[in-house]
Amino acid sequence: MEDKYYWLLISVLILLTVILTALLLIVVYFVFFKEKDNPPALENNESEEVPTVKHIRPPAFDAPTLTTCEEHEDTRAVNVCAICSTQLCELCVREDENIVFCPSHFKTYVDHNWVEISNVKTTPSTPEASAHVFEFKKHLWKSDGTPTYIVTHYKIDVESDQIESYVKLMVREEEKEELEKGLKETMQ
After folding, report:
1. Final residue of a structural domain among 45, 78, 110
2. How many CB atoms lie within 10 A of CB 147?
3. Is the predicted pLDDT of residue 136 greater than 80, yes or no?
4. Helix (H, G, I), strand (E, B) or coil at 95
5. For residue 60, which of 151, 139, 114 has the smallest C-alpha distance?
6. Within a domain: residue 119?
């Protein structure tokens, strides 16, 4: 009889050890890890200046929602062509210097010299500053199929602690003057 009570007592002690260990792990999680997710409370009703977020109207251009490849309709699209915005699967993507093209426009890209005709700076408070560049590119493609592409470079302004982006419209060298003139007209 004593053997039964002895093993029952050992079983209960093991069960209590497991439960206490689990509780200890939960406490450790909340004390050391969960606090990092929440900002510390202010003591003594101290007031701290909270930065305000300026609500900004999004730019006039929209990024396409990726669905399926236009060439392989049963395959998921992973990117779009920088020139024509055709949705592309992994098989169709052609890339150079982190710029993605469809197979036919990759040939166009390789066969020409490309020059920049804009370098528009945008910031978090002025995202719409480059909207006219995107609209001009879209208009050129839709109206007469003129191939152009946009390159965006990012820079951190340490003094103002914000990210700046520089939007560059790239055109074929032989069309530079004509398209520069057209872009300037859209800004007026």
Report:
1. 110
2. 22
3. yes
4. strand
5. 139
6. yes
Look up residue 61 and give its DSSP letter: -
Whether residue 14 lies inside any domain: the answer is: no
pLDDT category at 62 given cuts 50, 70, 90 is: low
The overall pTM is greater than 0.90:
no
The predicted structure's pLDDT at residue 161: 85
**Same-domain check for residues 183 and 116:** yes
Q: Would you say residue 58 has pLDDT above 60? A: no
d(CA 69, CA 103): 13
Q: Is the pLDDT at 59 greater than 50, yes or no? A: no
Q: Which of 155, 156, 148 is nearest to 180 (CA)?
A: 148
- Overall residue count recorded for the chain in this entry: 188
Tell me how far apart the alpha carbons of residues 87 and 135 are, in angstroms, rounded to a whole number. Answer: 19
Mean pLDDT along residues 81-97: 93
Give the structural domain span for 91: 65-110
* Token code pair at residue 81: 């062509």
How many whole angstroms separate alpha carbon 106 and alpha carbon 60?
A: 27
Reduce the DSSP state of residue 116 to 3 states and report it: strand
The tally of domains found in the chain comes to 2
